[in-house]
Amino acid sequence: MNQFKLIGWVAIALAVVSAFVTFEYMGTILVLLGLVGGVAIAAEDHVRVLVTALFLASLSNVLVNIPEVGMHLAKIFGAAGTFVAGAALTIISRNVWKRYKP
Question: Taking the CA of residue 14 as centre, how many other CA atoms within 13 Å lie in the half-sphere pointing to its CB?
């Protein structure tokens, strides 16, 4: 297992833990993990990651409507969206750099 897959698994574990434990810097940690993990994403997966980041950010609150477990699921998917948003920012930054580098 390479280090980037390990970063993804750690982020998923932190997303699940964040649904039950409140930690002030959890969002920061997830974004930083996403920024680092985004380096290893292959070019053919860039659009998939960008769309995933958008949909997780916008649709995670829909899960609140599920009785009993909805709030926890919304927090888990919201935290996963934070991680994927960090990876999306890395992809966007790299694409802008490749386009406009001197």
Answer: 24
How many domains are there within the chain?
1
Q: Terminus-to-terminus CA distance in the chain, angstroms?
A: 36
- Report pTM: 0.90
Q: What pLDDT is recorded for position 20? A: 92
Q: Rounded distance, CA 26 to CA 79, Å? A: 9
| Residue range(s) defining the domain that contains residue 58 | 3-100
Distance CA 21, CA 36 (A): 24
Confidence at residue 32, expressed as pLDDT on a 0 to 100 scale? 96
Q: How far apart are CA 39 and CA 15, in angstroms?
A: 20
Asked if 77 and 56 count as a contact pair (C-beta separation under 8 A), the reply is: yes
For the chain, state the CA radius of gyration.
14
